[in-house]
Each structure stands twice: as C-alpha cells, then as structure tokens.
User: What shape does this take?
Amino acid sequence: MSALFAFESAVLMTEDDPLQAEQPLIDVRHLRVQFGRNCALDDVSFGIGRGKTVALVGESGSGKSTVALSIMGLLPQGADVKTQGSVVFDGGTENQKDLFALSERERRKVRGKDISMIFQDPMSSLNPVYTIQSQICEAIRAHQKCSRGESKSRALDLLTSLGVPNPANCLSSYPHQLSGGMRQRVMIAMALACGPSLLIADEPTTALDATIQAQLLELFKAVQARTGMAILFITHNIGIVAEMADEVMVMYAGQLVEAGPTSSVLQNPKMPYTKALLRSVPVLGRRRQSGDVLEAIPGQVPCVSGQYQGCRFFARCRYAEAGICDLATPPLERVESAHLARCFKWKSVQEAAQ
Amino acid sequence: MNTMHAPLIEVRDLRAWYPVRGGVANRVISEVKAVNGVSFDVKHNEILGLAGESGSGKSTIGRSIIRLNPHTSGQIRFKGADLADFNSREIHDFRRKVQLIFQDPYASLDPRMNVEEIVTEPLIVLGFPLSKRQRRQKAAELLDMVSLSEAYLERRPSEMSGGQCQRVGIARALAAGPEFIVADEPVSALDVSIQAQITNLLGDLKERLGLSLLFISHDLALMQYLSDRVAVAYLGKIMEIGPSDQICSSPKHPYTEALLSAVPKFGEGHRAGKRIVLSGDAPNPISPPSGCVFRTRCPYAIGECAEIVPQLSERSPGHLSACIRTDVL
Amino acid sequence: MTATDTTRRLEISSIKSFGEYAWKRLSARPRLTVGCILVAFVVFMGIFAPWIAPNDPSESSINVLIGPTHANWFGTDDLGRDVFSRVIYGARTSLIIGIGGAVVAVLVGAPIGLLAGYLGGVVDLILVPVIDLFLAMPALVLALIIITMVGASFGNIVLVLGFVMWPIIARLVRGQALTVKTQPFVDAAKVAGAGPIWIMRKHVWPNLMRVIAAQFAIIVSFCIFTSASLSFLGLGVPPPTPDWGGMVRTGSDFLSINPLMSLAPGLAVAVTAVGFYLMGSAVE
Assistant: This one.
C-alpha cells in the first residue's frame, strides 16, 4: 500500500486500522498549534511514507515552517504556545516513538539521529567561530561514540559524497570563507551525519542562485537514492515541487487545503487557492501580451484567531459563495483516489469549467 | 541630433571597479571588477530584462545608470546626450526622468515617515511648486495609480504588508513623472501571489505611462513574461542580449542555456530534457578568468576560450551573443 | 511572523483601557519601569520642593548638627540648616546640571557625529581622532582641570560637563549614521534628487532620535554623578545653593555626629543616577 493511502487514512479514518500493512514513517495527526490566541496550525494531519519526498507549499504565514518546527520539537517555549495532536515516528516498528510524549532529553536523541532539519539560511545556522570540521564532527559525535580520527574521516567521506571539491580544504575552513552553496552542502552533511530516515528541508535553496539551486536539487535526489531517506521539502517554488516531490501538500492560513500526488495536484488542482497559486506564476515560454495579466490573488492571508468561521480563503476566493463558504470550515475531502481538497464548491466549479 | 530616434538610454563600455582595501595603511590591494565593459541600449517604451546571478554586476549596472553608484569609465547617454557633459540644471532634469524601484519593500521606505511624506518627497526635493493641499492631492493620485486607496496616506511602512509597501515604493518612483525606471528585483522579496500583483502593475504602468524599464531579476520565467528584450550578465559582462522569446527558447550562449535549464519547471512535459548542471561557483570578480569569463564552468569550453575575449556578435537580427563556439549553439 | 510578534500584537489588541495598556507595556519592561519611577520621583521633588520641604534650605538655626528629630527628619548640618529640605532642594540643582550638561553634550556631539558618519571621507578622517582623543581622557580628570582654569560657577559646570561628555554622543551618532546611510531608503531619497542636507535632516536624523534619546538619559546620569564628584572635591556649585555632592563633602567631616548629613544626599545621587541610567539603557 502506498504512503498516500496511509496519508489518507490519517485524515479520513477516525479509528486506526490494524490491518493496514505499512504505517508511514511519520504520522502527524490533528496537529494544532496556537500562539496566544493566534491559531498557527489547525488540525493538520498527514503522513510521509518511507523514502518519499513530500513537498509542503504555502506563502509566508501559512504555517509551513511551524509544521517543521513542531515535528522537530523546536517551537518557541512559552506559556502562550499551545500544541495539541500527535506525531508518531516509525509507527509499527520496534523503534516507534510518539514524539509529543517524549521527554526533552529523549527528544534530543531523535533530533539529528532519526529526523534532521536544514534551514534556508546556512550562515546563521553555522557557528562562525568554529571550523567546518569541528561542526560536522560535533554533529556526528552527538549521537555516536567514535574517536576524533574516526569522526574526521566520516566528515571527509560525507563532504566527498556531497560533491564538495577539495573536501579536506573545506573541513579546515570557517563558514565565512565558503560560498552560499558550499555552506548549504555543509549543513546537509551535518544533517546527514547520523543517517536520519527523515530530512526536513525548510526552503533550502531559496537564498541561492539558480545554477547553485540546480546543483543542490540534483544532490538531494542523489542522496535520497543512496540512503532511502524521506524528505519533507518546504518551498514556495512550484517548479521545485514538480521536480522533486512525489506528493504535495498545500497550506493556507494554518490548514492543509489540498494534498495528493504531485502530478494530480499540479495538473488538476481542485481548491481555488491552489488553482490561483499555480496560475499566478509565469512559466518559461509565456510572454506578456498587451492587456494580459497574471492571475493575482487579491488581498492578504488572514490572521486567524480561535473562533474562525468558514473557509479561510473566503475573502480572496473568486468562487466564494456567501451563505455556504463563510459559515463552516469545509472538510478536507477526497476528490480522487488519493487527492484531497478543502472546498465546498470544487465539484460545481469543475462542472462549470467543463 | 535626432533625439527622437536615439534610444532612451545608451550604455557604452561601462566599467565599475571598486577598490579593495587592506593590509598595512589601508592600501588599495586589488579591485572588484563588478561591471567590466558593458554596452546596451534601452529603447523608448521598452522593458529590458537584465538577468544574472549574484556577482554578475546586474544591480551595479542599474545603479550606475541612474548615477547612484559612481562608475569607473564608459559612457551613459540619455536621449543621445552624454551624462558626463550635463550641467547642474540638466542633472536636475535627469533626476526627474529616471527612478529606481528597490528589492526590499520595507527597507526602502523610511520607517519614520508616513505614506504621504514618502511619495511626495521627490516632488519637494525636485522643487515642484505645489501647495500642501496640491501635494496631498497628488499623493492620492499616485496611490490610485498603484491601486491603493487614499486611506493609506496616513499609514507608516510598519503598518502595511510587503506588497503594499512595494506599491508605495512604485508610487514614489512615479511621483516626478519619470520616463525610465530601474526596477532592481522588485518582486523577489514578495510572496508568490503578491509577486503576480506587482508584475501586473509594472506591465500595466509601462503601457499606460509609456515608461521604459530596466527590469533586473534572477527569475528567467518572470523576465520572459514581462520583458521585451533580455540581457544576460555574468561576472560583470553581458553574455547575450536579444528579444526575450528568442533568448528563452533558443539561447545562443552556453551560460544562458545552463541558466534556463536550471529553472525548475512544471506544466506540460515537465521533467523532460536533460538538465545542464554547472559545476562549482562563479569565480571571484577580483580576478576574473582570462578570455571568456564563463569558460571555467562552461561545458563547451576549448583552449581558445582562455585567450580570446569574445565580443557580442549578431547571431540573428537583434540577438547578440558573446561566444566563440558558434558551432555548438 | 514569529511567535513573539504574534503574542505581542495580541496582547495589545486585547487591552481595554489606557491605564491597562500602559501597565502592560511597562510591566513587560521592568528596567524602564523602575527607571521611570525613580526619575519621576526625583523630578517631582525638584519641581515641588517649596511645598514638600518643611524648611527653607538656606535658613540657619542655632540647632547645629543635631540627629534626626520630628522637626528635622535627617537632622541639621553644621550651620543648623535642615538636611531633609536641602536634599529635596538639591534635586533641582542636580537635575538642572545633569540635564543641562547632557543638552550641551548632544548639541555639540550630535552634529559632529552626524557629519563624520554621514559625510565620511576627509571629514570623518579629521573628526574621528578628535573624538577618540577626548574619549581617551577620563571625564572627571578633564572636568577637574577645566573647572580649575575657568572657575566653578553654575553655568561653567554645565558647560564643562557637556564638553567632557560630547564625545560619547558623537561616537554613538557617527556609528548609527554609518548604518542608516546604507539603508535603501536613503538611496531612494538620493534617486529622488535629495542632497546631503535634506537626507541628514529628513532621513538620518529622525532615525537617530531613539538612540540619542536613550543615550541622553545615560549622559544625564553620568553628569549628575560627575558633578557630585566635582562638588565632593570642592569644585562644585558654590554655596549656599543646596548641592548633593557638596553636602556629602561637608557631611563627611561630621560623620560620627550626624551620618545622615552625608548619607542622605549620597543616596539621592545614587537614586537619580540609577534612575536615568535604567531609563536610558532600557530604551536603548
């Protein structure tokens, strides 16, 4: 059974299905995060299958980074940060862990070893006063007992496998001496140091040049083919989604609004937000004619507080219908075998289009 | 001189080198060749796209043209007249005619000013004889041009979203009635759906006001969409320049080809075609490679590339490329 | 948007009255709150001294050097003057000297720092060594030397304090101006055709106001402290003006008879200086 069905079950089934052959690598259920009264994530459920790449797409304020940080257990601590739901890692195996039930100490063991994360800006995640070698070795030795020499040769191997030219030289440099692309490779090396089975990549190429981005995308594919790890790829670039992801999830204002196999979602989007998002990006080969416009989504992402009624895209949606869309939150329903969308009107919109 | 038929902006062999100081007594130890011999024209009512990665010198080119950065040598002509020969009155006039739109919508607006003060600032410093009431009315008109309501006049940048700030930045650029605007990555700091709004606005303004734009961006798809012609910069030089459709569909320079293939694509037939992945990073602009500056990363480089500095030569009408390997592309 | 942004905005939006708003803002920043309370207390004393003080601060009596009584809370000094009233009136002297000195420091230091930072180049090359030279000399020693030369009077002390404090402001303003001038909005003004004077006045200066205001409060505390030290060394405000530093000095001869004569004004100096310092550093 594919990971997507597992994913679906997480959303659609209320009871766990004991017959389910394979549980996803990570199973996020009913995740809800509140900052004060602000609802950053509202009932987010999904699963990522082993070895799969899942893209998480959304604009700033959609909550996509909050998803990553909650899985990592790196949300800011504070009296007004409330987290509900469950995240089960490696369910159905002896390594099964309910992440939210773990102590901070046990959580740290998971971080880096089972799940690692890389960020958009490698410069701010690397410590400027240590050499690359000491930082990669630190990552290796955080979870494995090994000698200094061993960890150094492991670091060298890692950088070599990531296509770093002259890896020995790179090990002895400081972060500021490296280019942006190299720094991101070092971050990837640190993330891969302990062989995680899930890598969360939060906009890892956004700050980089196009040709360097292309290098890194190829690198992600190669590493994944070699290690079989799953990747949660957070991005706002639809092109990257199309190229990298097996499945895609679209977030809007703290909710999943559409999810499914990449080709199905990108070629046949059902939720009006996804439709508009796809049309608002110019693709190569398209030239503006006089009077031609890109489909822009008017207005802003709403700030959602506890008692929000109706569809969150209501105010910006061209298909919105008062009396239906603004009264209740639409459910995330199945529109095709593995394709889910959150819209009351997807059927009528589709029929009208035909 | 026939100013009507001269291009609006002519750039000839522009160089902008910046000293690198260091060592004992803060001597000049080397020079960053940010822009190293660049020539192109911007015609009337045309959007010229300037594509390139970091270190290509694309922002420096834009800032040199509007005299925000000093340049080392080369000519910039505005309506056929050399900027270097301008007297103070003509410079004042030139200031009214050229403007800049910035990348960072928040940082380019003074946080201590409200929107009215921001958009009317050019009117005041350029000495438009307007009363306070006329200025307010003009500010409202400018906001209307960028589809913001009068209610925004009293707002401060911190009270607006990125897209709204960028609209205010554009309104300010329009205040003095410019003919030429340099837009330096005007949408890359914005969310995808907001990018489309601003892109539409720029295209619309070009048509309504008859503006010419130098549109600086690293996003080739966006550039092809908006620009009439595209110039591709690499390490302070122009590699290729021509009509945007031609550049994007049949590039004549290996760098353009690699840049296009690096764009992650979606839509019909995505994942088709082999990607050209360039190895390594762009060289340091302090000591660019000899000959063709792209040869160190070029998949087609041959021995001669290290010796011959390729000149822009016409490959088809209006489409120029600086590459000696005319046999491969 | 980060979590703190969100929570802060929420806090503000859920507030009903101004009092509650002010309290929420202040309780979130204890340094600022304590600083403001201390400064407000001293300023109140200074302004309403004639109503608060039970006696005339310069009126002598035959009861010299008595300890605390109901009539004289802090006792009397060697000339039979009420120490409590003199401490209260002393707030005026200290505030005027402190604020006056800081005003002079800002008037001298801010333009110099602004010119050095914004114009850069040769102007900067000339001004920076001058600023550094003054910074290198201990303020108190420099003030002592100049006061000895020009003589101790109320006006001279204010001028001299301003003169020894200006480099602190100048260096700060220069650094800030260097940062502000690289901001894109300054480029935007240049593109709009604005000259350096317009940009300094309309863009750089308003964006410096906050740091200057913060540093101003800190300089006030330095000035109060330095003027007290000067007075203690006998180069302060001439008598009979009630002055805390001078009172500490006179009182030190009679510590065993009426210790409050020294301790009360000393404590007043500390409270005022700390109050201004907390206020300034919290804003900074």
Remarks:
- Chain A touches chain C through twelve residues (CB under 8 Å).
